[in-house]
Amino acid sequence: MDVRIIIFLLTGKFSCVFFCFMVKILMLVKRYLENAVQNDLEEKMVFISGPRQVGKTTVAKTFLKKEEDRYYNLDRRDDRKEILSAKWPSARATIVLDELHKYLRWKRWIKGEYDAHGSRIRFLITGSARLDIYRQGGDSLQGRYHAHRLHGFSVGELLKTTRPVEPGKPLEFSMDSDSKLIFDLLQYGPFPEPFLKQSVRSLRRWRRERLDRFFREDVRELENVRDLSSMELLADLLEKRIGSPLSVQSLCEDLEVSHRAVSHWLDILERLYHCFKVTPYTKKTVRSLKKASKVYLWDWSSVSEKGFQFENLVAGHLLKLKHTLEDQEGYRIGLHYLRDTSKREVDFLVTADDKPWLAVECKTGGKDVNPALKYFGERLNILFLYQLTLEGKEDFLDGRVRVMPAAKFLQILP
């Protein structure tokens, strides 16, 4: 069933039973990385990481198709006993280990199990932290796994309109675009539960409960944070600093804590998929600011200012493109922003093998092209220049800059 029909049905006046039924249908819709994970499981272990409640467990359980397959969650006491006993099926099977990174010596343990049983057991490991770096040290897992980062819903994934994207090559756009969906994503965010319910009240409750569990469980269990309340205040402050170069010193003054503490907390929030950084692009041909990064949230629905919320949504889509090309195709992709000492600025620059590929500017409306796009395009030899408008419907060229509706651009991305 087309996802647009399902969303329409979900927003209509139907009974609670029918609503739950339709949610289950949509949750069975194939997520964008399932084919890649299926192929990788035939070769090595697979790690799926991503934010809390983004759908990792739902995706992982789709690979449990035989009676011998098993699902274990380290958060459950009985499952912990079963995991550490390592009594795997004698037949070929898929074993899903959820939140395994919360076990202190998980890397050493899974290395031993994979080396002993990897020819028969397909291990699929999920977690709400960056499994490729978490708890570094100990035995190396190099060469034993493929890692995937799961994102929430995007325009292209929901509409099933994504197209093959090759770094350094032009993007191929469709003739039509669905502008309504982008506004739904802006309001309800990319996470499956609030997006499917399409309820402002449910969104508020979901966001509060998710953040409570994030700090009380994920942060407390995985990190040594003494001043948890100040770290929560930092997360609140970040919502008001989206789209601007982040001043750690300013945050220190607001929170009355040390520079080291704020930097440490920001690293934790990034490792646990609460936020992500976009660094400035530095090149000798451009007098650029070389330190201050921008910070964006995985859940952009909590950003209050419309323009910055739109910019965060585009950042999330570009990050999903970056991670998809890296995790599934092995490319080296960079996501940056452009700003020089003359305060010329472009929201995003996507690089492939350190070479400028796409520059993207975000505007809520209007037709006037940001002069910085043309300036940086010439100085850095950027292959393709785009200015995306949230509310505009025009699609035209101004020199080398293509001004187009954001929905039309985003719907071809993963």
Detailed description of the structure:
By secondary structure, the chain is α/β, with parallel strands linked by helices. The protein contains 16 helices and 13 strands. The chain folds into three domains: 1-29, no CATH class; 31-149, Rossmann fold (3-Layer(aba) Sandwich); 155-410, no CATH class. It has helices at residues 3-10, 16-27, 34-41, 56-61, 77-85, 106-117, 155-159, 179-188, 192-197, 200-222, 228-238, 248-255, 259-271, 306-329, 371-380, 406-410; strands at 45-49, 70-73, 93-98, 121-127, 145-149, 275-280, 294-297, 333-339, 345-352, 355-363, 384-389, 396-398, 401-405. Helix 12 packs across helix 13. It is globular and about 65 Å long.
Produce a short descriptive summary.
This protein has 414 residues and is of the alpha/beta class.
Number of helices: 16
Helix/strand/pairing category: alpha/beta
The rounded Rg comes to 22 Å
Amount of beta strand: 15-25%
Question: How many structural domains?
Answer: 3
**For the report, how would you describe the main beta sheet?**
8 strands, mixed
- State the total count of DSSP E strands: 13
Order of helices and strands: HHHEHEHEHEEHHHHHHHEEHEEEHEEEH
Low-confidence stretches: 8-27
Helix content: 40-55%
> What is the 3D shape?
globular
N- to C-terminal distance: 19 Å
Strand order of the largest sheet: 7-6-8-9-10-11-13-12
- Report the average pLDDT across residues: 89
